[in-house]
TrEMBL record:
Record lineage: Eukaryota, Viridiplantae, Streptophyta, Embryophyta, Tracheophyta
Similarity comment: family membership: Belongs to the cytochrome P450 family.
The keyword Iron belongs to this UniProt entry's keyword annotation: yes
PANTHER family for this protein: CYTOCHROME P450 78A7-RELATED, CYTOCHROME P450 FAMILY PROTEIN
Pfam families with a match to the protein in the record: p450
Entry protein name: Cytochrome P450
Binding site for heme: C114
Length: 170
């Protein structure tokens, strides 16, 4: 009886010391990758060894073809309002991110899929959860500029500036 009472009190005390636990809907990472694919030109490069036609397009032998993930994730024929950040679209429709649905395949698909895809997603979700749990995020007076520029990966044109306020003071 004493052990149960002690355990109950210690659990109550530990709950009071913990910061609020934010929940991250699983649709948010998908929404972010859909809006801002990290690698807009996937390394699914293929070399045409024969002259061929793809739909109405002629592809001569020796042409290197690459998948433009940015164009796919911003195509109005595939997504409604593709330029809006709408993570709820992934709650309404299950769009797997791991390569079985080519509308959203940032890690590639098939035999040449990225071997680090599971670790990358787990790491990104853990990092996001820790940042949300430990800090309250406050925008600056200038707002947030999400303009991007294409280098080897998709990068922000201007650095993200915001204020991180610790949730628990030391």
């Amino acid at each position: 009886m004493i052990a149960l009472l002690w355990r109950s009190r210690s659990q109550q005390a530990s709950r009071r010391l913990r910061p609020p636990q934010p929940t991250i809907p699983p649709s948010h990472p998908q929404g972010n990758i859909e809006s801002h694919p990290p690698g807009p030109l996937l390394s699914w490069a293929r070399l045409s060894i024969h002259d061929t036609h793809v739909g109405p397009h002629f592809v001569p032998a020796g042409t290197t073809a690459m998948v433009n993930m940015y164009a796919i994730t911003h195509d109005e024929k595939i997504w409604s309002n593709p330029n809006e950040f709408k993570p709820e679209r992934f709650m309404e429709e299950d769009v797997p991110i791991m390569g079985s649905d080519l509308r959203l395949a940032p890690f590639g698909a098939g035999r040449r899929v990225c071997p680090g895809k599971a670790m990358g997603m787990a790491t990104a979700q853990l990092w996001l959860a820790q940042m949300l749990q430990n800090f309250r995020w406050v925008p600056t007076e200038n707002g947030v500029d999400l303009t991007e520029c294409l280098n080897l990966s998709m990068e922000m044109k201007s650095s993200l500036v915001c204020k991180a306020v610790p949730r628990i003071s030391a």
